[in-house]
Every structure is written in C-alpha cells, then in structure tokens.
C-alpha cells in the first residue's frame, strides 16, 4: 500500500508541479489572448478549436486509453515487452490512418455547416496537428503504461512553453488567431518529438505492423472511443451551437469563463492520470486494497474541488473583471453556474476510471452516451433562444447526470466508504470558508480575500479531519519515493 501511494504521489507531484508551473504562465497568456483578440475574434477562435475537439476523438477511437491499461498489465508478464512492442506498432499505424480520415471529415463538417471561409481555412490548418498527435498520443500512452507520467508531464510542459513563447510573438506581429494556430502546431511538434524519444529510451520502437489484428484492436478499444467522443461532444457542442446561433461575441463570453473551468479541472486530470495505470496494476496484483485507495482518492479530490467552487461562486463578480476586463462582465452569471461543474467533473473522471478498471468500460460508455444525449438535445432546444445561460445550465446538468449514473453503478462499493470524511467534511470546510470570503469581499482586496480564504480552509480541513498526519507523512516520504520508484 505504501509503495502504491508513493508511486502515485510521485507521478502526481511531478505532473502537478511541472504542469501547474507552466499552466500559470499559460493561464496568464490565455488572459492576454482574450484581452488582445476581444470577444468577437476570441469567440471565432474558440469555435475553431471546438470543431477540432469534437471530431479529434475519431483519430484515436479509444486506442490510447486501451493501450495504457494493456501496457500497464503487460509489464509484469515474462513476454510483456514483445506484446507492448506489437501493440505500440499497430496503434501508431492505426492512429495515423484515422488522423487523415478525421482531417477530411472535419473540413467537410465545417463547410457543410456554413462556417465562413476564413474559419474553414483555420480549421483545415488546425487539422495538421491531428497527424502529429497520432505519434504523440501513441507514445504518451506507452509512457503512461510504464507509469512514467513525469516524462509525459515534461513533454506537456515543453508544449505549453513553446506555445506561449511562439504565441506571444505572433500576437505581437498581429497575426491574430491564425498565428496562434501556427504557434500551437509548432508546440505540438516539439511535444511529439520529446515523447517519441522518451518511448525509444524505454526500448519500445515501431516494428512490423500486423493488419489482421486491427479489427480486434478497434473492437476492444471502441468503448473507450465512444467515451472520448461523447465527452468531447458534451464539452464542446455548446460552443459550436453558440457560434452558429448566437454569434462570435457570445461565444467569446462563454468560452472565456469555460476555459477557467478547465484550468481548474487540470488538477483532477493530473491526479487521475497518475492514479489510473497504478490502479490497473493494483487490480491484478492486490484487488483487496482498492476500496481503501478509492476512499482516500475521492476525499482528496473533493477537498480540492469544493473550495474552488464555493470561493469562485462568492467572488465571481470580482474575478471576471480582474482577469479579463469590464467588457466581459456579462459572463459572470454563466461563470457562477459553470463553477459548480468543477467538483462534479473531479468526481466523474475518478468514478469513471474506477468502473473502467473493473473491466466494465462499456458501462462508462453507456453512461456518457446518456448524459451527452441529454446535453445535445437540450442545447439544441434551448441555446438558440437562451444563449450561454442555457449552455451553462446544461453543462452542469450533464455532469450531474453522469455522476449520478456512476454512483448507481458503484453503489455497493460506495456503501463501504466513509462518505462523511470524503464529502461532507470537505463541503462543510468549504462553506465556512465561503462565508468568510462573502463577509470580506467588500472590505478587502480580491487577492487578500483569496489568501485568507485558503488559509482558513486548510485550518478547517485539518480540524475536521479532512487532512491529517497520514497526508503529512506521505509528503515527507516523497524523497524516498523518488529513490524507490526510480530504482
């Protein structure tokens, strides 16, 4: 158990520190982009990215997620390296073919939906990244399967750094969002090169492709692909609809605050990505330990997400003009709705992994299809008339329906967990922190209020037993973790 915790901690810490460090820079850059482009141009840029995100999953079809699980399980097999090599070669070849197909579909979809020619051209340029992602995604999955998320995190740091530097240059040159797309392609190329080199250093290289196994690979990975496509549709369909029916400016307002939500969700993604391959191995070697691990993981996720939601809801009217400018104040109501998606997304990502680890990814696919179907139907009905407020409410409802389905699937397991410690106590601490912030919001500056709220929350979390000696011991053992897992 200690070895498992330290491995996950190492991957989480390396991933979090690396990604959060560069995310601070990237976050500041995104604010610059939003300010520099303005709501109109930023809305069009967001729509271009949303189109790409919806269709990008076709270029993978779940092959990466399936690869992570299979590589993690094969590592302890005497013939595991041969299996890993064969899987990597076939996944890489398949993804390259799927990427070319997806690029064609994406450009046709933009043209058939009547997007302006400038947007169609931008979408076509952006599809070049799909080809590079075929190599990067296959290599990143191999690194995750080997539990080298520290290396994968380093590649993502390089990607973000190159994008920020190159993006700043193109903005200075006045190239608009076309320049940002070019900067992003350069960043993807650098990340792809780093992941490729890292996989080769592990002894994994592309070998002979066996096309006869492709139908089987696509069949077993399809549930993961359905999950990815449905999630992409759920998260980006509203932006596409807003752009079609409500125009660029409203899309810009919505996308500006929506991006803040995904900045917060990065914390969950780092933790869950580190946890997934370790849990996949644990499910084979020591399945009896999983319920205790699940309880701890859920507690940490709620302890992190609930104060973010409460604090942001209280201070939203100050945060939006502080980050952007007064022109984006119309987005505040949407922001106050969307921020409650954060704890739900933390929970849904984790609970989805729990179901997948048990080998029931088809149930995850079914749950996401249900929630995404609700999202698509309700957005089609409401967004044309009510705009981004309807989109915000549907995003929240979609995530709540998804979590509800996972809770039902895992009800037997959840009964064995102490939900008071995992959910109720973090929520109580967050609400007390929010009350303090509300009382201080008109009398102290925003940054001072946030600092006092963070301090108050950690004190309350310690007093309520959300955080304790066990977490402190785990952090102190970080040095020995690096030695153990690096040996």
Give a written overview of the molecule.
The protein is mostly helical and 487 residues long. The protein has one domain. It is 86% helix and 0% strand. The chain has helices spanning 2-56, 63-74, 80-112, 117-126, 128-145, 149-173, 176-201, 214-245, 248-285, 290-323, 332-338, 341-357, 361-409, 411-415, 419-440, 446-463, 469-476, 478-486. Helix 1 (2-56) runs antiparallel to helix 4 (117-126) and helix 1 (2-56) crosses helix 18 (478-486). The longest helix has 55 residues, at 2-56.
Order of helices and strands: HHHHHHHHHHHHHHHHHH
Straight-line distance between termini? 18 Å
Count, helices: 18
pLDDT average, as an integer?
Answer: 81
Please give the number of β-strands: 0
Contiguous runs where pLDDT drops below 50 for at least 5 residues: 1-12, 474-487
Principal-axes geometry comes out as: globular
Question: Keywords, please?
Answer:
18 helices, 0% strand, 487 residues, disordered N terminus, disordered C terminus, mainly alpha, 86% helix
Brief account:
86% of the residues lie in helices and 0% in strands. By secondary structure, it is mainly alpha-helical. Helix 3 (80-112) packs antiparallel against helix 4, helix 8 (214-245) runs antiparallel to helix 9 and helix 10 (290-323) runs antiparallel to helix 12 (341-357).
Task: Give me the secondary-structure topology.
Blueprint: H1 2-56, H2 63-74, H3 80-112, H4 117-126, H5 128-145, H6 149-173, H7 176-201, H8 214-245, H9 248-285, H10 290-323, H11 332-338, H12 341-357, H13 361-409, H14 411-415, H15 419-440, H16 446-463, H17 469-476, H18 478-486
